[in-house]
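Consider the following assembly input.
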Amino acid sequence: MAVDTSDKPTGIAAADIPAMLKDAAISALLALALAIPLFGFRVSSLGTGQGFGLEQRWDLVAVTVAAVFVGRLILMPALRAVSNWLRERRGQRSAEATETIQTVLRFAKLVLLIKLLVAAALWPAFPWVDRWLLDLGILVLTYVMLGWGLNIVVGLAGLLDLGYVAFYAVGAYSYALLAIHFDLGFWQCLPLAGAFAAFFGIILGFPVLRLRGDYLAIVTLGFGEIIRVILLNWYEVTKGPDGISGIPRPTFFGLPFKRNPEEGVTSFHQYFDLDFASTHRIIFLYYVILILALITNFFTLRMRKLPLGRAWEALREDEIACRSLGINPRNTKLTAFAIGAMFAGFGGSFFATRQGFISPESFTFIESAIILAIVVLGGMGSQLGVVLAAIFLIGMTEFFRELEQFRMLAFGAGMVAIMVWRPRGLLAHRDPTIRLNDTKRGGGA
Amino acid sequence: MEEGQPTRPDRPGPPNRMSLLSVSGVHTYYGNIEALRGVDLTVNEGEIVTLIGANGAGKSTLLMTVCGNPRPARGTVRFDGRDITRSATYDIIRRGIAHSPEGRRIFPRMSVLENLQMGAITGDPAHYEGDLEIVFDMFPILKERQSQRGGTLSGGEQQMLAIGRALMARPRLLLLDEPSLGLAPMVVKQIFNVIREINEQQAMTIFLVEQNAFHALNLAHRAYVMVNGRITLQGTGRELLANREVRAAYLEGGH
């Protein structure tokens, strides 16, 4: 019976009817089970002073069950027709067509890439971009950068890191403390913060060298918490839960963004002879994070073509095979941790200078989870996927701010939706890093 | 030497060459379990040496011990005159031992070409193109499938890829762990022909671990039989093929 139906994509065969009735009956039964507790009974007032009675509403239940039964009966053929149509269309993609589709997809990806890049570069100049959208852009780019950084560890090297925010925190606190105590500027602190974070990456890396998968995830999760708890309790240095305030703002090559700079200091707007506007600083910050993010991206793309980057990917695929190819797994893992942490450190410094205030509150597990979600939803190892996932997740949560308590519900629903439709991430396709060109392919084959 | 000659079972191995790999008195443990109980064995330059034995005899353990993972508790492993018993795996590999591990272990999400390139990762990039040419000549199918993902290849093709990847490292000694595992008889034949070719054309020294005793003994210059972590028999391939115990334990019934 079931075999028959698959041969007849459209129209309802007589043989289908019992199956359809059965299906509809099951749906109706489910509806009944749900309807009775949901609206089968109602507590009603019997009038003042009379107390409450239980009103039975069987009519409503009956109507619901009937509606579900009939609805399911009508909907099923429609659904089947749609799914058959989709299957047919997929079938038309013959083997030869796959090659063209691949080329078209690659081209479409390139176009999307260029569009995104241009949009990112011109974002502050768009007329509709106000202060809020500019801030949102900075936020999204921060997550894009963190996503790209974590992508090195999780996407390329395959080391599941649930404590990535720890390095972000190390970067932020490094910048804040260095800037306040040693009077260093943002640009001097940036490499130092990156180095500190990388150092912490190695510290985390050593004990977890032999761990993989779930066990690694648990240890990194613990590491993230350890860093946060230290920040919370080491009051003499970190000021604990009070956080560090008065973190210096970035300067434009030594020109501060201030309306009234101190004696002898030229402000940005004075130097360029502009009217003072607070958005100058925001626009500058936007470009700083854009450039930092792009550096992260180009670094990763470059690494993928170098032996070390290859070794990362190979390690993700098969550690035993890596050993038998003469790859040193220890150094390979440590570099992945260190470099991933370094970019988190850069991101952290940026975060500190943008906020002007940091506290352990900003570096909770949820941040790690969001960054990891961006990497996973984007498609592990896909650079463009990270961008799309960051825009989707961060942008969406901001846009749905009006939903208030339902915001996280929308966030969760979005994640579930991606995992249902694209179970391996938005862009799961992995492009090989090398191809032989056609001239070489011709010989001898 | 007589390398071009048609090969019959009694293959006169290149005589009196220097021993390239020598394992002496090696004991290896997995926890409390003694997997190798004092193994002595040599592989001379230019030879194909095979180690046959039943499941769980310790064959793969021996290959892995040569590669330093796990390290032996006692005994020494010498490669090219140097003691490598305590060296790290990556160091041993870089000295010129290529290990094609049990179960092929190619990188499934990487393309065939990338897999081959991974083999050359520790080597001198100057040789890369030429070596690639050699591997593609040996396995034309890999050239055809070069942009396909490794995981989408058939079992036989994956085995070819695993051997090709090992060759890309330009080893002096090639360790092959059960290359016939799970392959159709026709494909097994093909793989063994290729192993012979590699030995004859490139004068590659090959140490082959196999359960498929018939093919392995036919191919090898010399052979060892392992039972429960000990070498119980050794001789030329032909001697062992004719040996009654070997026939009873490993050959009869199977072929």
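Residues 19-105+172-251 of chain B form a domain with the Rossmann fold fold (CATH 3.40.50.300). Ask yourself how this observation constrains the way the partners meet.
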